Amino acid sequence: MKKISKYLYACLPLLMVLAVFFLVPNLFALMQILFPGAFLFRLLGPAGNPNSPDYLNLISTIMYACALIPVTCWYFFGIYQKHSSRRRGSFGPSTVGPVVFLALGVSHSLTLLFMIMSIFIPDALNSYNNLIEDSGMLNYSVLWFVSTIILPPLVEELTFRGITMHLFQKAGAPFWIANILQALLFGVFHMNLVQGIYAFFLGILLGYLVKRYNSLIASMTFHAFFNFFGTWLSDLESRYFDDYLNFLAMIVGIILTVYALYRIKKTTRPRSGNWG
User: Pfam family of this protein, just one (predicted)?
Assistant: First the structure.
């Protein structure tokens, strides 16, 4: 029973972030209704207008910024300070290359997964594509950069690979089980079938990077570049690539993914046990 309670406790970071994501936009919208002429909303400029294409990026930025505060406090005071002696990671400027290439390869390899999903869950995939178009993720601006490239990797890596995976291991789960469980919660966090499926596989890979490098910076770097390649670069390619070039990019992506994983495995020595 005690072990079950520890496993349930490991789900608390997810619930905390989801609570922030639910409360913040609703409170923001309520304040806009009650105080439409407030100085704060005038300070936001055009982005504060609900009809602005950058409005969703603004809301996303506020949500992630608010979530970053409790997540950082939990990780720093509850985990990092207690295990700082074991936090000599092997990730640095000289090791960024393989992680960036891995992000590039995986972002293109996912085309294969999308092809499979288009066969088995075509309606869900269409809904996902519509969601991306309406989400503001393709409206490029400073707010887009902050809400897509900067804040999500920080918040999500601290939450899932930083806190959740640690709590599962602390509950007695070996790394591979803890990694699968945190990846499963990472998929649930995205609240969308298509995103949930590929987020699950990404979560496993991100947990693997943390294990290999003994550093959250490695998974944050991958996450940031993956989001960049999956939005801006993917959007650019969709304008100029035909089906043949898209298929070729997928094949190159798979090869690049395998090679990057080989390089990472060859140049890192993961520590055994709970990484902290």
Answer: Rce1-like
Cα within 13 Å of Cα(120), Cβ side: 9
The residue with tokens 């409790």 is 70
Widest CA span in the chain = 59
Residue keyed to tokens 């939450």 = 159
20 Cα distance to chain centroid: 16
Which structure tokens are listed for 236? Answer: 């650019």
pTM to 2 decimals? Answer: 0.92
What is the Cα–Cα distance from 262 to 100, expressed in whole angstroms? 14
Neighbours of 39 (CB within 10 A): 8
Distance CA 58, CA 62 (A): 6
Q: Count Cβ atoms below 10 Å from residue 80 Cβ, excluding itself.
A: 17
Structure tokens at 263: 């390089």
Pure H helices in the chain:
2-9, 12-34, 39-43, 55-75, 96-120, 122-134, 142-144, 151-156, 165-170, 175-189, 193-213, 216-228, 234-240, 243-267
pLDDT at 79: 92
- Rg value, the chain, Cα: 20
Q: What's residue 41's pLDDT? A: 73
Structure tokens at 171: 């509950």
Q: Both tokens of residue 46?
A: 């055009």
Instruction: Yes or no: say if 79 and 162 are a contact pair by the CB < 8 Å rule.
Output: yes
pLDDT of residue 276: 44
